[in-house]
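Thread: quick sanity check before group meeting

JM: Hey all, I'm pulling together slides for Thursday and realized we never actually wrote out the predicted structure for the chain we discussed last week. Dropping the sequence here so it's in one place. If anyone has concerns about the input, flag it before I start.
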Amino acid sequence: MFLIKSLPNVKQLSNLASLRVRLTLGIASMSILGLGVVGMGVCWQMQNILVVAHKNNTHYIADRFPSDVEIYSDMVSLEEGTQKAIDNLSNSQTLLWVRDTQGELTAQSEALKMGMRGKNLLSLTDIASQPEFRKIGDRYWVLCSTRLVVKGVDLGDFHIAQDITKDQMMFWGVMRSLLMVSIIATILMTGSIAWYIQTALQPLKRMSKTTKDISPETLGQVQLELENAPSEVKELANTLQTTLTRLSNAWEDQRQLVSNVSHELRTPLTVVSGYLQSTLRRGNNLTDIQKEALETASSEADRTIQLLQDLLDLARAENGRMYFHLETIVLNELLGEIEGMVHQYPIPVEISLPNESVKIKGDKNRLKQVFLNLIDNAVKYSHSPEPIVIQLSQEKQQANIQVCDRGVGIPLAHQTRIFERFYRVDEARSRNVGGTGLGLSIVKTLVEGMGGTIKVISKPNQGTTFTILFPVL
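JM (edit): ok, ran it. Output follows.
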């Protein structure tokens, strides 16, 4: 009974088709998209607040400047009053200048006059009346221009430039820090999501591990136990458990039916075959047509009896009732006996034996059945007169028996299924050569029942090699 008690080892995220990867990438992508939108919104809002604050300050200076000039002009001339107002409002970040109606520079901040700051500002001619954010060279400025009228006198254009480079660099620094924090948070979040999804999918992985190696013989032994699983997964497990139980019962009923039918039909068919053969032996007055009909009926009866016997053997093996008389066998001697039994085949059979004796534990009669089935199969599907070669060798602690032919071969897509019962690579050819489609299935059952293994290597139109391996004594 298979009980799921522990978690399997989890592979890294590498399969893009897996549910875990898709969920992780999907949730992480949506989270990153959400964080990105929020981050962009925060950045835009912070930038807007920064620029708006400086624009408001520029508005304040533009509104205040004419009144300051008017106050100073009560004591000095308008030109001197304008310069004093500029000096009063200027600082390291705020630069002011005035151009008269002819475009001549009449007043400016000390930093502009000395060429310390804003060298490119005085050449600007397209400054808007509303404060605007602009990058000039490697500096960031908020610029504004307004008409300066004092005591009814038009003094020209008054220009304001506020250097916000320091604030802007600080803003970009904050943005870089925020970006780094976002990247780290995204990585941690993705890892957390992957871990959580992995944990949530563990019941499904346990179900997959349990059902992966189910065979017809173990259908009734499977038990799905999912502790702490979500209710949907438990419902799926219960449905699967019910399905497996039904399949197990159906498989057992089928095996029992095959066994019973094969057993019940074999006896009457054996009697029929005996009567047909007896009639053929004693029927001296039979016509040629009658003899041909009786021979055909006898042949089909014998073939059906062999089919039923094969089915019985397989049924016994599946039910654990096929017994082997295991003894020490010298394969050299056994294959020597086989060599004396294959002269009736139309294609020669060559057997290559080593000088050293190769001993295994096996059932002599069952082994003969295995080799004769493989030789019979090779003869049926050979299209050339080249001999069938049986080669015995010992490699390390294994006896290696190869049965090679130069027949039609087996396509790669069919090689994994040729040991299935009733499976035929070419149905049309199989009907022509005869056979029940159970020979290779019985061979595999017998070989594995005696502790050996069998494998096949084949190429179309080049031949097939069956290799049987047994542990040596």
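AS: nice. The domain at 231-318 is CATH 1.10.287.130 (Helix Hairpins). The chain has eleven helices and twelve strands.
JM: adding both to the slides.
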